[in-house]
Amino acid sequence: MGTKETYTPGYSEVALRYMKRRHAARDAAFFLPQLKPGMRMLDCGCGPGTITVGLALAVGDGLVVAVDIESSQVAMTERTAREHGLTNIEARQANVYDLPFPDRSFDAIFSHALFEHLADPLAALSQFRRVLRPDGLVGIASPDWDGVVYAPKTQEVHHAIKAYIKFQAKNGGNPFVGRELGRLLSDAGFVGIGLGATYDCYERMDLICDLLAERIENEAQKTGLLDVATVSRLSAALKQWATHPVSLFAQCFVTAIGRAPS
């Protein structure tokens, strides 16, 4: 990420609980069959490294270089690797627009929940193509916020989701980038592109509701786009909704796989 963007979820304790629930078996399931032992791969926007460990297991005696722009996430990935006894993870702080690696350094690149925060996704993909070897693979998963399914449906939750979407766009991201991934890969020169979609169904409603409430409160203070009374009402409604005994919050993720030209 660059100076034109802000990472909307942030790095609070609430945000970390939200990110740490991710794991490769679910969130990288579309890409894991493409990985082989001995591969050298890059995990861009690794966060706390909970997906990275699954990638590292998939490449066996290969190497996963995990990068994130936030130093605290790099340190957390190193800690996660140690906790799992993995020595084939190298964590580094890096900007996706200026990857500090030579041309043709990697056999595969993976990125989860990063591209929705980028103001210039094509610039990032040009870096991906540069550091990929010929015929190297890229796998990207990003949400499309138009695809959220939640129940029971309430006006307050609807308004909270719309507010989060507005804040993410104001921060330089694209909440609907999922539907653009195929075009973006094609424009960046990748070939053999395949698209899919999955739903991330939250096992605990408080994980997503607490994050939405915190972000709405934080972003409203910074931007003034919502008044105090509206913020308080939406926050209280989200926390109340999370306690409903029969509820669903399912977020659509578009998945895309492409190949660097030979």
How many β-strands, per DSSP?
8
Instruction: Quote the distance from N terminus to C terminus.
Output: 28 Å
Mean of residue pLDDT values: 95
Low-confidence blocks of residues? none
The description of the largest β-sheet is: 8 strands, mixed
Count of helical segments?
A: 9
Given helix and strand content, the structural type is alpha/beta
Rg from alpha-carbon coordinates: 18 Å
Overall geometry comes to globular
Approximate helicity band: 25-40%
Beta-strand share of residues: 15-25%
Give helix and strand order, one letter per element, not per position.
HHEHEHEEHEEHHEHHE
Describe this structure in words.
This protein is of the alpha/beta class. It has nine helices and eight strands. The chain has helices at about 15-20, 25, 50-60, 70-85, 120-130, 155-170, 180-185, 205-225, 230-240; strands spanning about 40-45, 65-70, 90-95, 105-110, 130-145, 150, 190-200, 250-260. Strands 1, 2, 3, 4, 5, 6, 7 and 8 form an eight-stranded mixed sheet that branches. Strand 2, helix 4 (about 70-85) and strand 3 form a beta-alpha-beta unit. Helix 1 packs across helix 8 (about 205-225) and helix 6 packs across helix 9. The radius of gyration is 18 Å and the shape is globular. The mean pLDDT is about 95.
